[in-house]
Structure formats: C-alpha cells, structure tokens
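Example complex used in Figure S2.
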Amino acid sequence: MGEPGSEAVINLVIWAFLAMIVTSLLLLLLIIIIRVVQTVRDNQNRRFMEVWRPIMAASIEDSMVDRPPLLKFNYLNFLMQWNLFMDSLRGQSRKGLIMLARETGMDKLAVKLLDRRSEFERTVAAMSLGNLGEISQWDKLRVMAENHIGISGQVAARALARIDPVGSVPILVPLFIQRKEWPASRVALILKDMEPNAVSIHIAAAIFTAETEQLPRLLRLLPFMERGIALQVLGDILARHTEPEVLSACLAGIKTVGDYQNIELVKKYLDHEAWTVRVQAVNAMGILARSEDLPLLTDKLADSNWWVRYRSAQAICYAPFVTQDQLLELRDNHPDRYARNIMAQVMAEKQMAVK
Amino acid sequence: MLHTVLTIIQWFFLLYMLILNMCYLLLNLISFISISRYLRDHRLDEFLQSFSDFEPPISVLVPAFNEETTVEATVRSLMQLSYSEFEVIVINDGSSDRTMSILLDKFKLVQIPEAYQVRLPVKPIRGFYKSAMFPNLRVIDKENGGKADALNAGINASRYPLFCGVDADSILERNSLKRVVAPFLENPITVAAGGTVRIVNGSRVVNGFLELAGLPGKLLVRLQIVEYLRAFLFGRLGWTPINAMLIISGAFGVFRREMVIQAGGYTVGTIGEDMELVVRLHKYMRMKKEPYRITFVPDPICWTEAPESLKVLRKQRVRWQVGLLQSLVKNRSLCFNRRGGTVGWLAFPFMILFEAMGPIIEILGYIFCIVGFILGVVTPTVFVLFFLLSVGFGVFISVTALLLEVISFHIYAKPKQIFMLFLCSLFENFGYRQLVTLWRMEGIWNWLRGGKAQWGEMTRTADWQQK
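Predicted assembly (822 residues):
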C-alpha cells in the first residue's frame, strides 16, 4: 500500500476530481437541455389546451364543431384530455365526444398504441378503447388485464367493464380476487361500471369459495351486489365463521345493505368478546334499531371499550325515536360514570353540529 | 513505525470518505430507478382515480407551541385540503403566547366535555374544544409536555385509523393527503408514509397555499435548499425500495394509528421524536416478524420555513444531531439483529457509521491534517488531496440531486434558478459544510452531556405569507 501522498495516488485523486467536476458540468448542461425541452413541451401543451378543450366541450352539445387539424405531436395529449372529458360525463352526452375521436382518427391511433412497447401509451390506448366501446380489441384488452402488473392492467380491466358491463363480469371478478395488489378503491371504481345483477352471482360465488383471510377484502364489495343476494351471503358467512375480522366485515356489510329484519342477527354480536366486532354490531344497530332496542344500546354505553361506548352514544343521540328527555336522563342518571361521560360528549357534539 | 501508523491513518480517512460517497452514489442510483417508476405509475393515476368511499379517513394532528404567527393560516389551509373524510386536531401544548386565544377567536371554538380515551399517557388536559365554523376541527388544550406528548394526546383523541402529523408552520399542497395515503391503498401492509418537505422561503404563499415556488435571496437558505434536495430525493427515496427508510419528517408523515399505539406512541423526552418513532416501528414490526412497509412519497407536498440566520440554523442542526443519536441509541438492539433485515444490517449501521459518527471522523481528519502539517509529518499535498476529493464528490452528488429534481418535479424551473443552485452546490464546500459539521459535533457533545428534549422553537419570519 502506497502513501496517500505518493505520486500515483496524487495523480489518481486529481484525475478523479477533474472527472467529477467535468461530469458535474456536463450534468448541468444536460439539466439545462432537459429544462429547455420541458419548457417547449409545456408551451405546446398549453397551446393545445387553449385550442382543443373548448372544442371538446362544444362537441358534447354539437357534433359539427369547426376544428383545426390535429398535429401529430398532440395525439397523446388529445387522447389524455379526451379521456378526462369522457370520465366526467355519462350516457348520451358522451356521443358527441366519441364522434369527435372517430372523426379525428383517434380510434385507429388507440388501436395502434395498444401494441406499443411504452406502458404509458398502452395504458392511454386501453383507456381510450374502453371509452370508445371498441369491442374489436376485446381479446387484447383481456390479455392486458390478466397479465399486466401495475396500473395498466387495472385500466384494461376498466376498459373491459365499460365495453361490456355484463360480459366482462366472469373475467374481472376472478381477477379482483386474484390480484391482491389492486387497491380496493380502484376495484370499486371498476365495479361501478358493471351490471349489479351480473356481478352479484360471481362475487357471491367468489365469497363462498374464498379463503378466510380473503373474506374481509371481498366483503367490502357487498354494496355493489344486488341487495337480496348480498344479505343471503352475509347470513351464510356469519353462520359459518367465527373470526373477528370476518364477523366485523359482515356486520359492516349488514349496516350498508340490511334492514330491520336482520337486526336479530346483529344483536347476537353485541356481547362478542372482540371489541372490533361489538363496535360494528353497535354501528349496525345505529342504522337498524327501533325504540324497543334502546335498552340494548343503553347497555353498550357502559362497555369496556371506548369506541363501543362512543358509537353507542352516537347511535342513541341520532336515533329518531329517542327524545331529548331520554337523552338527558341517560347523560345525568346512567349508573355507569363512563356512560354518563360519553353521553355528555356526544350530546355536546350533536348540539354543535345542529348550530 | 510512526511512518506506517501515519500512512494507515491517512488511508483510513481516505477510505472512509470513499466508502461514504460511494454509498451516497449508490443511493442516488436507486433513487433514479425509484423515481422513474414512481413517475411512470403516477403519470397514469389520473386515468384511474380511486373510489373516494374507500379512502381511509385521516386525523390530521397539529401540535402547537407558541405558534401565534402561523397557527391561523396553517389551520385555515388544512381545512381546505382535498380529501373525502378527515378531521383536524390542534394540540396546544401549554403555549405561553396567544396561540390558544387566536384559535378560540378565529375558529369560534366551544369547549365540549370529552370522554377522553387515554391509550398513551400524556400530561393533563385542560380542555377539549370544537369549532362552530368547521365541524371537523377540534382543539386540545393541555399542559406543556413537549412535542411528543402533544402528538400522543392527539393520537389519543383521534378517531380515524390513520393519523398525519403536521407541523404548525407547514404549508401543504391541497391534494397532499390523497398523495400520501396512496401507499396505504396500494399496499395494505403499509404502516407509515412520509412526504417530501421543501423549503418555502422565497416562494409566494396565498391563503395558506403555495402559489409560486421560488428561490430565496439569502445564500444561507439557498444552501439549505441543496441540502434538502439531497436529503429527500435520495437520502430517503434511496432507502425506500429496500424498506429501510429510517426518517419520516415530523413536518409531514402519515401513520397507522393502532400500530403506533402498539409500539408505544411517540417517546416523550426525545428530541428527534419523529425519527425515533420510525426506527421503533421498524424494530417493533421486525421483532414481531410481521410483514410491513414504511414508505416515502417523493412528490413535493409539504413546505416549511428554513432558518435564515446562522444562530437559528445552528440550534436546528444541533437538535437534529442529538435527535439522531437518541433514536439510534434507544433502538440499538435493532443493529445487526438476527431479525433486523435491511434496516438492522444496512440502514442502521450506515446511520451510525456515517451520520452519527461522521462529524467526529471529519473533524478528526481536519485536526490530523493541521497538526500533522505543523509537526511536519503530513504534507500540504495530502490535505489538498482530501479537500479536492471531498469537493469533487460533494459537487457531483449535489448536481445529481439537482438532475433528479429537474427530471421529476422541476419546482425550480428557470435556468437562472438551476444555475444558482449549481453554484450553491459548489460554494457549500467552502465553509458551510465545515460549519454544519461543527454544529453536528456540538450536537454529539450535547448528547454526551445528556441533551434534554424541548420544543424546536424557531424564530419565524413568515414573510412569504400573503393574506
């Protein structure tokens, strides 16, 4: 090992220093070039928006809008903006925009883009074809939904749902279950485009055959099912399962889709050992309960868990069948101190909300 | 014999510097890959928005101690955040100024009885208040107990599964909650996510929101901007893909409430309570052998005021160093632990070797060169060599951070701003870096003497704020 002060080391360090400084200067040059390119592109985008947004808005009402030629470097911009417009519209109002896309040849471009290597271009294409209802690309979109990871697969799934809300169900529902990385919030968005009657049977079948750990995730999809089927599924799952996570998810589902006929099912869980189950039971009671159920909710004001007490107090305070005198009585004379405290809090919150 | 010892010492310093900078370059490379992926995925986000009913509700916790100049603007901007369901809880930690009276007056607070759930022990609460103007705004007035205690009080009072700690002087982007919650939606095992913090000095803020990002006039703040670029764009992003990020800034971070309570909440008595919590969450999850992710969102979503005077900057850096040391020492069992994974075997040792001990070694290096030169055992050439290498790496790493910024978010868009930041990355090597090293050394000294936790009080100018 030589000394750091030896000639070889000195030369090495000087060369390293010079290399780093020169590279830094080159990087600076690169940064400036990138910024120039970005600025040019931003200006082009701005000009495109100024011209084409009003045209797109006008084409919703009138299909005979005058328009300038669409320049090649604006093709992707057009499709992106067009998709955003389409997403903000429903039904008939989309027809004018679809016509605009076809007249400008963007439908053919979308088909071409679907075969590109760039994931971004493929995703824009899938979204566009979904909004155009382009059934001819069904198989390619299906392959994309089934095989692509990341958002492009999800966009392809949504395109299928838009093209055929019924026919896409047997393809997509199994995907919703398999693709655990798909956020539930996005799956819900896709389900909104699908036909509830067709979806119900497939989701029900998936729930019946799912592993226990998959159930809480799948049970969140109940609001997208037909109500009668959803209730049947809930009854069956509650009868077969004892895991707190599953029971909580079922009770949350009953809160959303249930009615008074299901209240007996809910009552069974008011004294469950897991507070997460009790709190969901109380939440469901808050929606379903009638005056004769008040004593059950009153008991829960003295629960050992704060959340159960809080939700019970909310259920009582906002129930239409509870009078102000009854509320005051509970707040001042409930035998349990914690119950009195939580009633005082929720009553004060309610009073402020009314103001 | 002496000659051999001197040679070994010189090689030690040289290798230390080389390894440190190689690590930074590696982190830089990882960041380039991560940010490219992030941009690619999120460029497509607008095509498939989330169904807002499925967004988890969030409690935004704002601990405040003597924040009379900024608290009103901060709370007003928080109330305008774009998110489906959230509550804001301001925790007045026994302020001695007008913080509480401003909140009472400006937000029409009414005291309410609250059956408080004490899951984490905190100092006594004086009162709970609810705003008559904003139904989702609550204020807790409590006795002074420090920032960690205030945050714990907020966690106790929060009602949602996620909470977001926000400094009372932070400026948030309108969609910041949506962006920082995305990792929780995309990956359910996420327990914490940090956001990128940028410097607001020199920018224009109107009604609590950033309107135009700009560069401040003061060189001291510009130098800090380069530091922030490095710290957030690759200091954090580089560790994220291997799930080993140890710091989420207290200015803006989202956590899963139950996990934080199970891990014991914020530790009262520590200075860097934000870092300490993240390190402890890693430790807690690793020891439990449960899958988890602590992640980072590179979008610039939170803006904070940087110190404009050397005096305030010194206090800040001393405090940061003490906080770092406290966090590492308190969770030292994670280091090289059998279950420590990438955190215990990579990030933790890196932090100890380069961040905690870095100032000691750097200063020893300077002393060695100077004393050696005086005694005639070290030639000026060696000193110059060390310095050249240090400057070369410093500039190169800063410029790559600048490149990362331009490729990704290009907040500083004008060529003049880019050139200024480039000059800063050059100038910082001549005095500023050495000064910061000295302050960090002071932090180490304070820690050795048992540095006490206190609120990171900072003189704020808030001259970027326009009503």
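The two ends of chain A are 81 Å apart (CA to CA). Chain A has 19 helices and no strands.
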